[in-house]
TrEMBL record:
UniProt source species: Paenibacillus konkukensis
Enzyme class: transferase
EC number assigned by the record: 2.1.1.186
Domain Ribosomal RNA methyltransferase FtsJ per the UniProt entry, residue ranges: 186-274
Name by which UniProt lists this protein: Ribosomal RNA large subunit methyltransferase M
Protein origin, superkingdom: Bacteria
Length: 345
């Protein structure tokens, strides 16, 4: 008699248009039998994998897919009547959701477009907060939660799961990390570098000297300057005028292929250029002598022909052996691109 296969169910979220790539990565992680169904076409999907919950989660964390922005476990499904009240009642009664007294929990509610506009995510969150706080004496919070209660609503079903923040890949609802636009902000590209800092576990204030290749108009340069880093920005186009008098900035209005630096001048290299990956790789390769051993490189890779896995292999091959890839991720603030984190050997 053969032992029955145990399956675990999750909801996966990718950037719009890249759901199939996230599914392909998940499929490669698990043996035959992985199943998918769409919740939001090309973006949000249910996936069932042939492994227990703990094993499946750990495998996804250890070999994190590039295109899987967020995942939530599905511990329970509610045949939902479309009312906010039903969600509160369900949260208070379902044994899978039991919490210890004093546990800090954050409720994250998302829904498909088919769920009426009269059902607000905020109202759903409040109903669940009140139900769990009353039933278990748990503490509702917005950040720094011990656990996250994720709720995904369709027209007739509520998918609910409880997990630790790190088990979701992101502690933001759906992995949609949002930063507040500042007055006088040079460009929204700054958000990509901010998100990369969190995603890759970096602290830019710990770096001494950075090279920003293709810097104009200066979104990435501005963030590094704010963190106290000396920045050498290179671009034939102009930087935003607000940056030019900064005492920590050296601006070279040239093509990066035409400049020369002292060896190991920088401990951080960043590049967010709209070039073809192979051209960009050649340019960066020619400047790696200026990056210190053990230095960091953060590079945005444009997916011009939608062959992402091949494109990543080619670029990492072009930059080897000097740069070793630590992690590649399609961030929330990426569009048709990936952000790559390297360490110089």
């Amino acid at each position: 008699m053969t032992e029955e296969t145990v399956y675990s169910t999750f909801i996966g979220t990718a950037n719009h248009g890249f759901g199939q790539h996230a599914q392909e990565e998940i499929r490669r992680l698990f043996e035959a039998g992985t199943r998918f169904s769409h919740l939001v076409p090309s973006e949000i999907f249910l996936f069932m994998v042939p492994a227990g919950r703990q094993e499946a989660t750990q495998r996804l964390l250890d070999r994190e897919p590039m295109f899987l922005r967020h995942m939530q476990p599905v511990d329970a499904e509610l045949e939902w009547d479309g009312t906010v009240e039903a969600l509160g009642g369900f949260a208070a009664q379902k044994r899978e959701l039991e919490l210890q007294a004093g546990t800090k929990f954050a409720v994250q509610v998302r829904k498909t477009e088919q769920v009426g506009s009269g059902i607000a995510a905020g109202a759903c969150k409040q109903a669940i907060d009140e139900a769990l706080a009353g039933r278990y004496e748990a503490i509702p919070v917005v950040k720094d939660a011990d656990v996250i209660l994720s709720v995904f609503l369709t027209e007739d079903t509520a998918y609910v799961g409880v997990s630790k923040p790190e088990q979701n890949l992101s502690d933001w609802s759906g992995g949609a990390i949002r930063f507040r636009k500042e007055e006088g902000q040079v460009s929204r590209a700054k958000f990509k570098l901010l998100e990369a800092e969190r995603t890759f576990g970096l602290d830019y204030s710990q770096y001494r000297s950075a090279l920003d290749i293709g810097a104009a108009p200066g979104g990435w340069t501005s963030l590094l300057l704010e963190r106290g880093v000396k920045v050498t920005a290179v671009d034939p186009a102009k930087l935003d005028a607000s940056l030019l008098r900064h005492p920590q900035l050296t601006f070279l209005q040239k093509n990066a292929a035409e400049v020369r630096f002292k060896e190991q001048s920088f401990d951080l290299l960043v590049c967010d250029m709209s070039w073809s990956p192979r051209q960009m790789g050649k340019l960066i390769k020619g400047l790696l002598y200026s990056l210190q051993s053990g230095g960091t490189a953060i590079i945005t890779l444009k997916l011009m022909h939608k062959k992402p896995f091949q494109t990543v292999r080619e670029l990492t091959g072009d930059l080897a052996p000097e740069l070793a890839l630590q992690k590649a991720k399609q961030l929330f603030h990426n569009r048709e691109e990936l952000t790559l984190f390297f360490i110089k050997s």
